Amino acid sequence: MRKKMNIDEIQRQLKFYQIDGWLLYDFHGSNPLALSVMEVPEPVLMTRRCFYWVPQVGAPSKIVHQIESHNLDHLPGEKKVYFSWKEMHRTLAETVQGAKSVAMEYSPNQDIPTASVIDGGLIELIRGFGPQVVSSAPFLQTFTCLWSKKQYAQHKEAARVLEEAVEGAWRGIAAGKLTDEYQVQQFILGEFEKNGCVTEGEPICAVNANSADPHYVPTQDTCAPIQKGDFVLIDLWCKKKGGVFADITRVGVVGEPTALHEEIFAIVREAQKKGTDLIIERYREGKEVKGAEVDQVVREVIEKKGYGNYFTHRTGHNIHTTNHGPGANLDGIETLDDRPLIPRTCFSIEPGIYLPGEFGVRLEYDVYIHEEGTVEVTLPPQEKIDFASS
């Protein structure tokens, strides 16, 4: 049974941000964010343009094509049915008349690509009716990625599966039973299946120089052996069916780590902790913290140690029913994500240093902010580079 769309909360957010209304739009599934907010189930055909207008004050309204006039019947508000594009334009103009600002899934300069899915032509059309089009990104998280208590519990279950799977993989490596990257990957996938979990893509097991490629994925035909003295990175993520994801990365050495292994590990762990501490401190003080701010603090640790050019990706990503969720990312380098990290959302913190031709260290754990502001690292951090010692 679908929950009722919270119009009161939407209007509260619009009032807070001083926006006159929110125009949600979809065509052929082009705006999954709007579909999520409007709670349109996947089987519903969305082959014609539809709109849902929520003004800051007053009743919402829906604009639908006559062929699919029932698609938004589950939502409150007056139904306005159009047939021709001229009727659609006229109805839209009448609907937003008097509004000075209209929020849509748009991001100025495409600063936040994940929140910028409305095409330029539609933005031109709405602007042509008089309003300024502004971004819904500041409040979109509230309606797309907050976790329920059940989802938090599902995350913890998935995290436990990840922890047990990676520990089992290290034991298999140390015992000589898992002798190449592909075997480790397949072992982890087997653990997911055994525990009723699913994943997106496939886990990463990367040895030596392969670990210096953040998106390296082994296959049966292209995988490296694992031998004594090798550095190994394992990145794995999963969720219980119908749940939300957990995502971690661990590193180890088959034998004794070198001085350089130890140095790089220590820097990455310091950076990870620094970012986490910033979030905890801000919440303790009752202050906002933005994703880009955390990325900057983490990046500064690595840059001051002389390895800034070897940290080649953002610090973290939102986690939801997809592993890379729609909420704020810890990113001020690939994109400029100035959205706040808000309660009841989860995200990864995963700095890395990648030395081409040698090895790469990435440490990843997930952070959940509870409703009352408690910041939780949902699995214990890796503190030493000795998981695969034998």
UniProtKB/TrEMBL annotation:
Pfam families: Peptidase_M24. Coiled coil: none annotated. It comes from the Bacteria. InterPro entries: Creatinase/aminopeptidase-like, Pept_M24, Peptidase_M24B. Gene3D superfamilies: Creatinase/methionine aminopeptidase superfamily (3.90.230.10). Residues 154-371 form the Peptidase M24 domain. This is Peptidase M24 domain-containing protein. The lineage of its organism: Bacteria, Pseudomonadati, Chlamydiota, Chlamydiia, Parachlamydiales.
